[in-house]
Amino acid sequence: MSRIALTRLEAGPQIQAVQPTQLYCWPQFLDGDECEQLVALTDAKVRPSELASPTADKAFRTSSSADLERRDHPLVGIVNQRIAGAMGIDPAWGEPIQAQRYQPGQEFKAHTDYFEPGSVEYEHHGGRRGQRSWTFMIYLNQDCEGGETEFVRLDKTFRPVTGMALIWNNLLTDGSVNPQTLHHAHKITVGVKHVITKWYRDRPY
Ligand SMILES: O=C(O)CCC(=O)C(=O)O
Ligand SMILES: [Fe+2]
Fold this sequence. Notes:
It is a single chain. This protein is an alpha+beta fold. The chain has a single domain (2-201), classed as Jelly Rolls, CATH 2.60.120. 20% of the residues lie in helices and 30% in strands. It has four helices and 14 strands. The longest helix has 14 residues, at 74-87. The mean pLDDT is 89. Bound molecules: 2-oxoglutaric acid and fe (ii) ion. InterPro entries: Oxoglu/Fe-dep_dioxygenase_dom (IPR005123), P4HA-like (IPR045054), Pro_4_hyd_alph (IPR006620), Pro_4_hyd_alph_FE2OG_OXY (IPR044862). Residues 93-202 form the Fe2OG dioxygenase domain.
């Protein structure tokens, strides 16, 4: 699967990191109108974000989240298809699109998107549904300060840019997890940051 996705991805996005980590940035994956509509859909549905893995730190992930579904708006289906087409992955392997909203002071501290193998969270969230493989994240706005996405072990930091996608594989080509994908969504200092995230599994979800 990694190889198929890599081939398709070479058509549009810019490579940001090379083996063993596959990390891409794709400017203007969505246009400004699409982003604005997705922000409005998110604001109408948000709830406090959840954590897959337990942590004693109550300030670890302080954002809000919303699951965006096709029945919320036809644009959700269109974006789902555009992402699946770009990735060359069967849409059945994808989780529903989830939006994240960060208000001033909110962040998601350094974490990985894969489930720790052998852990309770893996049994609960992975298990039969499979491990998380690719993350396809799109910034919906840039009129904010702070909120950078930092890949702390890769020394790569991205500022939110409206419509820009960040795409990375949380796994290595042999299917094992890649700790180099550790990332931190920095605190927002001014304004509000919105993103949408699509996670793929390593088998049909
Ligand atoms: O908001 C970001 O920049 C990153 C979000 C993220 O890492 C996640 O939702 O898993
Ligand atoms: Fe993440």
